[in-house]
């Protein structure tokens, strides 16, 4: 009984890993702008702030540190690209692969092209 439960758990973990790997987008071409969301998760402070029309480089890849300038009193931030999620024409670049999708730093890009296989 326990062995079959463990095998089922292993299969579930393998399938979850395959779904993550199937995403497989490692490099995208951007239109040069996106919407940055910065989140603070320090107790007792927590919340997110959004900045529209943040300038992006033409190409963004997993592992990059994208230099960003945002806000009315320009802030500078080297955004660490941990993962790129493509959803149709849109992409979301996230800074942490382990965080909650609603409370991690991210960049939403209105249109992107997967150029992972193009050198």
What's the gist of this structure?
With 119 residues, the protein is α+β, with helices and mostly antiparallel strands. It has one helix at 2-23; strands at residues 27-29, 33-42, 45-55, 59-61, 65-70, 75-80, 83-87, 90-94, 106-109, 113-114. It has one domain.
What are the SSEs and their pairings?
Layout: H1 2-23, E1 27-29, E2 33-42, E3 45-55, E4 59-61, E5 65-70, E6 75-80, E7 83-87, E8 90-94, E9 106-109, E10 113-114
Antiparallel strand pairs: 1-4, 1-10, 2-3, 2-9, 5-6, 7-8, 8-9
The helical percent reads 10-25%
Extended strand count: 10
The number of helical runs is: 1
- Main sheet, how many strands, which sense, barrel? 5 strands, antiparallel
**Percent range for β-strand residues:** over 45%
> In the residues, how many domains can be counted?
1
| Average pLDDT reading | 81
Secondary structural class: alpha+beta
Shape: globular
State Rg. 17 Å
Widest sheet: strand ordering = 3-2-9-8-7
End-to-end distance, in Å? 50 Å
Order of helices and strands: HEEEEEEEEEE
**Residue runs with pLDDT of under 50 for 5 or more positions:** 1-22
